[in-house]
Structure formats: C-alpha cells, structure tokens
Design a protein that fits this description.
By secondary structure, the chain is α+β, with helices and mostly antiparallel strands. It has helices spanning about 120-125, 130-135, 150-155, 165-200, 225-230, 255-260, 280-285, 340-345, 350, 370, 380-420; strands spanning about 20-25, 30, 35, 45, 50-55, 75-80, 85, 95, 105, 110-115, 155-160, 225, 230-235, 245, 250-255, 265-270, 275, 295-300, 300, 310-315, 320-325, 325-330, 365, 375-380. Helix 1 (about 120-125) crosses helix 4. The protein starts with 19 loop residues before the first strand and ends with a helix.
Length: about 425
Amino acid sequence: MNMDKNEPEIRFEGFSGEWINKILVDVLSERKILQKISSDAPLLSFAAGQGVIDRSERKSNNRDHLTLDQANKIFKLTEFNDIVYNPSNLKYGAIDRNKHGRGVISPIYVTFTTEEIPSFIEMIVKSEKFKLRALIYEEGTVVKRQSVKPENLLSLDVNISPSLDEQTKIGNYFQKLDGLINQHQKKHDKLSNIKKTMLEKMFPKVDETVPEIRFTEFSGDWDEHSFTESFTFVGTNTLSRADLNYEQGNAKNIHYGDILVNFGQILDLNKEKLPFITSADIAQKLSSRKLKDGDIVFADAAEDDNVGKCTEILNVKNATVLAGLHTIAARPSQEHAPSYLGYYLNSNAFHNQLLTLMQGTKVLSISKTAINTTSIKSPKNASEQAKIGSYFQNLDELISQHQQQIIKLKNIKLACLDKMFV
C-alpha cells in the first residue's frame, strides 16, 4: 500500500481507494429541537465515559435536586445514534454516540445527526487524536469551565471512507470490541462487589464471635487474641524509590506505595514483580530482616484511611525479601492457613479497629504501638481458615482474569484505532 495516499494501514477485504477529507460541518448537523419531558422522551443523563444513559445509571452524584419543576422545564431532544458532546467537558472525554435511545437531556449538551454511519463517526470523534485537536479551541478564563464551542468543533477536518459499507464494517467491528470489553467489565465489577460483600460478612464484627456467612460444615465461636499475642514485629528499612531498581539485585524490597496501589491482600512472589535494592552492601546489611511466607506487611502511612492496608507474603522460597519505607512488618506467632490473615486483616472486621488510632491531617499514619492495641479473630479449625483463604483467592483469580481480558481488548482497540483510520 502506498502510505502517501489517504488510506488506512489496515482495511477489510474488498475495500480500496482513498478516503475523503471533509470538514466536520459537512458531516454533522446540529439537532436543536427543544421540548418538555414526555412519555416517549424521558429525561436522560449524559456523562463522560458513560454517554447517554438512564438517570438511574449515572455514576457521578445525582443532581436531580438542582433541576426544579422538571415537568415544565425545556430540554433538548436526542435520538438514537446522535453524536452528543459536552462543550465544557470535552477534555474528559464527554463526547459519545447515543446508544440509549430517544429522550431529552440538558440544553447545555450539543447533539448532532449525520448521514454517515454513526458508529463509524463515533470512533473518529472519540479518538484521542481528535480530542487533542479540538482542545486547541478551548476558551474561558476558569480552567474547569473552559469549553469548545460547536462552531469550532465543526471547523475541524476528518478523513472518511466514501463507502457506507466500509464505514458499517468498521463501526460494527468496534461495537463488538466494546461489547466484549463491557461484558468483561460487568463480570469484573460483579465479582469485585461480591468480594467486598463477603469480606464484610465472612469475618465476625466487633463484639461478635461468629461471622454472618459461614461454610456449612463449620460451627462454634472463633478465637480472639490480642495483636501482641498473635504477632512479633520484623525489622524494616527506609529506602526510597531512588534506592531501588527493577533490573537486578540481591534483595527485593516492598515499598508502601505498592501496598497501597499495586498489591492485593496476597503478595504472591510467583506472580508479582518487586523492585531490587540497588546497593549490594545495603542489601547484605539488611538481610537479617528478610521476610518469609505468612508474614504481613502493613503500609503505615497514606493520604486517606487506607493507612493500615496490608499484604500477606507467599512463595518467598530462597529470595531475600525486605519490608521498606513506611511499612510495618509482622510475623504470626501461631500458624495460620496460607492467605487467611491477608484477607482478614484487610477486612473491616479488623481495619475498623485502626480508624480511631490513625494520626495526622494531610497524611495519616499508624504506629506499631497503636496496632498492638488491636485484636485478631480466627476460626479454631485450620480447615475453615484454609477454606476462607481459598475462597477469596479464587475470587481474586477470576477478577484478575477479567481485568487482563479488559486490558488486552483495550490494547487491541487502541492499535486498531491507529491503523484502521486515516
């Protein structure tokens, strides 16, 4: 293919020839119909990342209370396949195709119709390249309220396939990709919500001795011990990110930022990549503090009440693994089933004990002394501990599988957007 021609790098079989460069004003026509809410045109919402949706689906704060006397207010009509955008929120991706259907939305939004294939045009105007070009026209003195006027948006040029059949195939392809992404996202979110609920219900609350939900074969009160009876502390270090690298070294180091952001309740060293301590001399001096399977590492500082989030170490094997900056490392005094403590110590059943012990304003922290005042609950039966740990690990594995598929499909989509459009 001659790359000097106005053609995409990748095309569906049977299509050839150059695409046409058009000014967007010749592609989109503004729909300016104003009307009240009616039975066939219900009040809808429009939000970045969600598009046109039913009001009940809005993820951001519901602002119905700001719209007084809705029955007599005039709204803007939108139909299925309209291209809708928010002039003030274009920078945040507030431009989308109406996939919901007929309804009315706030007059602050702009709606367009097109004689081209709407799903094809949608991919052009939602692309990062198009958005960056449009943002050149942002106006306004207050950054958060800067907007791109419709006439400026429509002044941009776009490259369009002259074949409606090719547009349809491209639009359908990306609709299928988006459908797969949405399917995995819904399953991911559902499993995440199940996990959140079970973390709440499968461990006894304060002043309770049994959990709300339990595997049927187990019964009886759980044990409760003080933290001081249950753990001893392991030495940590204060090495910063500057002292670490991901290439090579004799010892690996756990940074509190990774506990807060990157690691789950279980840190399986067969799956997670840890940075190395760059200095071999420092690594050698700290080697007596190395961690082993079952150890717990807490983040002792955070900008919110995530302080105290922790991770249980598994599959250390022969590696030297150390706990680093702003961490507290604790070693169980009694044997527990693998992964039980990682999930229990991150549940509200335990973490709520830390809330009144946190110190600070902008940055919160927790101390060893404070943690020592807490108590630990666990089933007497090690088999019950193991079953709880396995249950949550299986949930995490399913959640991770869907997350990996989402990432894979999004990468495919980005690559195709780059190669299937001019």
